[in-house]
Structures are given as structure tokens and as C-alpha cells.
Design a protein that fits this description.
elongated, alpha+beta, single chain, 11 strands, 463 residues, seven-stranded mixed beta sheet, Beta Polymerase, domain 2, 21 helices, two-stranded parallel sheet
Length: 463
């Protein structure tokens, strides 16, 4: 089912040379506003750390920068303020001050000894600080004073070989912050890397500690996994290390759950198959994760032994909403994912009236729904067969868009006031009649004339 990491994934992309990375980081750190911070904090030890250094080996550069220093946070704050640099105490409990200059964010963190996230014990040198970071390729630093890279834990080699390896003592690193277990998945299989045996064993042994992580941090890491090059492999890793109960427990009943003759995968494998085919869009990828979680709860078997999952999309929607509330999705994202999940079973081969109903029901999410239908196309349907149906849908959609752009396109030709004038009493009946009239017009837009709709309304008042 799964495609293996291909050229362009982290495990196979050639690294830039150490010398070229040092040259590019020297250029990066020579620019304003970073030099304003350097001048403000001098004399001090200053090292560029984190993703900026790691990603420079792939010729990628992050917008926000992280600096490690021997100065304590109060000294950093005072020196920045003296030089007119605005700071924010967002991470001060972790020894971090955020400096903001002309929209540029620079995090300044005091060297720390290896310790838990809740603690911060200062260190005097960068090597000690790097020894407490999560993975070897995140424990590489760039010395701003001497313009050279420091790599005390051979992270560059691991980066070049596509290996995720915890720094020094794997179990100690993961105990210090259990989120690192999820970061291992994100930097590992989700990006085409292999996790070394000791790090993987430590993650499996400590996986229950993921339950102690704040919901916001779990959500952020899951988003990062889903937006990675191989999100389906990331989801499989969450299952294999035992992290699903603490992240997306609704997926567990799907594992090994048989579908029917229209599918060649069980529900979980099908979910991964759809996720692999889904474009790099966070809403679409969450919809892929959730779209079939209702199937294990809606199984029925007819007299011929055929398995059915009637209304599973409704149950999937209900369960996905509950999980999104637990993960504290935004209201807008919840509604977007929910629409895709609830309507994912509606067919592309739906005719002109069906297209109009989809436009009405999906609104701005219709383009995403169309992409999702391609990702969720039954594996028993050939690509050529799917393309024929999809092309027909797209032509109907274009025709409807052209019709909606004409001056004659507008709202329903009658209103609630018109129904009242016919003698209806105020109440829910008026809304029901208007909804039925709207369905008539969706089925045949040519019927949207006042006289005809009033006649239809009269019929419904007589019933």
C-alpha cells in the first residue's frame, strides 16, 4: 500500500557541505536585526541553534531564529531594553526571552543543563546545553563569534543518513519531555527517516507519558506530522509505538476492521491510503484521518453476508467533532473538517441538481471536497473510470458557475411574508414550506418564479 520515501524526502536529499552551511549562516547572522541583538548582548556567548541550523543543511531557512547564550534572562531583558529592543516574557519559565525587531522574532534562551521541561538549571557552556536537546541533528550549533559549526553529538552524520537518534541517553531525553516521542514520529517516519533502535525502544517504553502532555502541544505536533511529506507513515508510527490512545483514540477500532467487497483495505489501512493521496492541506488531512472512524460503530450484515456501514459518515462527523473539541481546534477549522467528513459519501456522479445541492451544502469547502473525492476514490475503481466521472462533475460545476454569474440568478422568488399572506400562521410550518420550495428550485432552477412557487405553497398549506 505505502510508497517508500522517495528522492526529495529527508532521508535521501543530499546535504550541503559544512563549509557552505557555515558561509550561509555567517551571512544570515550578519544582517539586521540580528546584529542589533549581538551588539546589545556583547560580551556574551551567542550560538544559533535549533531548526535554522538543521535546515540550513538542506538550504532551507526558518523565519524565526533561536539563540542560546550564557546570559541569564534578566540580563538579556535589561540589555535589550537599554538598546531599544522590545522583548516578551513568553517563555521566561523555561529561561527564554523573545526579542522582536521589525517583525523579526528571535528567541534568546539561557544555556541549560539536561532537565525536565518544568525545570531550568543554567549551564555555563554550549556543549552542556546541546547535551540536553532532543535529537542529534537538533543539537548542532553555530558559533556567532567564531563563525563555525559545533556538532558534539555527530548530528550531521545522522542528518545525512536519515537517522533520528536521541542525544546521549535516549530514555533520559524522552523522560525530560514526553512530547519528544511525538517529535520522534514527526522527524522520523513522517519525514522519511529511520529511528535508531535505542530511541525507538525508549519511546515505546515511555509512551504512556504522552498522556501528561498539554492538549495544545499534542495538537501542534499532530498538525506537524500531518503536514509532513509522509503523513500516512507518521500515523502508522503512532499506532506502532502505542501513541494512538493518547492522541487520536477514535482510530483504534479501525485497526484491522474489515470493510466490504468495494475495498481491499481494512478501515485503518484505507485511512492511511487516503491520507497518503491527500494534498498537503491541513483541513484535508484531518478529514482523511476522521472520515471513516464511524464505520466500526455502524456495521450491519445482510442475509447474503454483505457488510454495510449505513450513515457511518454521520457517526464519523459526531466522533470527529468530539475529538476536535478535545484537541481544541478552532471553530472555523472544526466546521471545515466536519463538512468534509459528513459529506464525503456524496457522489461525484450526481447530475446538475446534485451539483447545486453540493454548492449549497458545502459552500466554500466545495473545492476541498472535490480534492478529497479524488483521494478517497475506491481502490476497486480504475483511475481512468474515476477520471471520466470526475470530468463530468467538473463540467457540470463549470456550467452551474456560469449560470450563477448571470443577472437572472438570485434568491428564492418568494419569502416567508408571501406564505403568511396566503393565510399561514406564524411558526415552523413557514420554514418547512420555504425549504421544500428551495428543493424544487435546486432540482429545476427554471421553476423559480413567484406565481409557480405560490401555487406550490398553497398545495402545502392545504395538506
Amino acid at each position: 500500500m505505502e510508497r517508500s520515501p522517495t528522492p526529495g524526502s529527508c532521508s535521501s536529499t543530499p546535504l550541503r557541505s559544512r563549509a557552505s552551511v557555515e558561509a550561509s549562516l555567517r551571512l544570515l547572522t550578519s544582517r539586521e536585526p540580528l546584529q542589533r541583538i549581538v551588539r546589545a548582548l556583547t560580551p556574551a556567548q551567542l550560538f544559533l541553534v535549533g531548526g535554522t541550523v538543521r535546515d540550513a543543511f538542506f538550504d532551507r531557512h526558518e523565519t524565526d531564529l533561536d539563540l542560546a547564550t550564557d546570559l541569564d534572562t534578566e540580563t538579556v531583558r535589561q540589555r535589550c531594553h537599554t538598546c531599544g529592543i522590545h522583548t516578551v516574557d513568553t517563555g521566561i519559565q523555561h529561561g527564554t526571552i523573545l526579542a522582536v525587531i521589525s517583525g523579526q522574532h528571535v528567541e534568546l534562551t539561557t544555556f541549560r543543563t539536561p532537565s525536565t521541561r518544568a525545570q531550568h538549571h543554567s549551564a555555563s557552556d554550549i556543549t552542556t546545553d546541546l547535551s540536553g536537546r532532543d535529537f542529534t541533528f537538533n543539537a548542532i550549533a553555530y558559533d556567532l563569534a567564531n563563525h563555525r559549526i559545533l556538532d558534539p553529538f555527530d548530528g550531521i552524520t545522522d542528518l545525512s543518513q536519515g537517522i533520528v537518534r536521541a542525544v546521549a541517553d535516549s530514555e533520559a531525553r524522552l523522560r525530560e519531555d514526553p512530547l519528544r516521542i511525538l517529535r520522534m514520529v514527526r522527524f522520523g517516519s513522517a519525514q522519511g527517516r529511520t529511528v535508531d533502535a535505542a530511541t525507538l525502544a525508549a519511546a515505546q517504553a515511555l509512551v504512556s507519558s504522552v498522556g501528561s502532555i498539554s492538549i495544545e502541544r499534542i495538537k501542534h505536533e499532530l498538525d506537524q506530522i500531518l503536514m509532513s511529506p509522509f503523513p500516512h507513515l507518521g500515523m502508522r508510527s503512532l499506532l506502532e509505538i502505542g501513541a494512538l490512545p493518547y492522541t487520536i483514540p477514535e482510530l483504534l477500532p479501525a485497526v484491522g476492521f474489515e470493510q466490504n467487497r468495494f475495498h481491499i483495505h481494512d478501515v485503518f489501512e484505507h485511512t492511511l491510503w487516503v491520507l497518503e493521496r491527500t494534498p498537503r492541506d491541513l483541513i484535508l488531512r484531518w478529514a482523511a484521518v476522521f472520515h471513516d472512524i464511524g464505520k466500526p460503530h455502524t456495521l450491519s450484515v445482510d442475509g447474503a453476508g454483505n457488510r454495510h456501514f449505513y450513515q457511518h459518515e454521520v457517526v464519523s462527523d459526531e466522533q470527529s467533532r468530539a475529538r476536535m473539541r478535545a484537541l481544541r481546534f478552532s471553530r472555523d477549522d472544526t466546521e471545515s473538517v466536519s463538512l468534509l467528513v459528513r459529506h464525503h459519501m456524496r457522489p461525484l456522479d450526481c447530475g446538475a441538481a446534485g451539483v447545486r445541492r453540493l454548492i449549497r451544502d458545502l459552500g466554500e469547502e466545495l473545492p476541498r471536497w472535490r480534492l478529497f473525492k479524488a483521494a478517497d476514490a475506491p481502490p476497486t475503481v480504475s483511475p481512468a473510470e474515476f477520471d471520466v466521472v470526475a470530468h463530468g462533475f467538473d463540467r457540470l460545476l463549470e456550467a452551474e458557475a456560469a449560470r450563477r454569474a448571470t443577472p437572472s440568478y438570485g434568491k428564492l422568488a418568494v419569502s416567508g411574508a408571501d406564505i403568511l399572506d396566503l393565510g399561514a400562521q406564524p411558526g415552523p410550518l413557514i420554514g418547512r414550506i420555504l425549504k421544500e420550495l428551495e428543493e424544487l428550485v435546486v432540482e429545476n432552477p427554471g421553476r423559480n418564479h413567484r406565481e409557480e412557487l405560490l401555487e406550490e405553497a398553497k398545495k402545502r398549506l392545504v395538506k
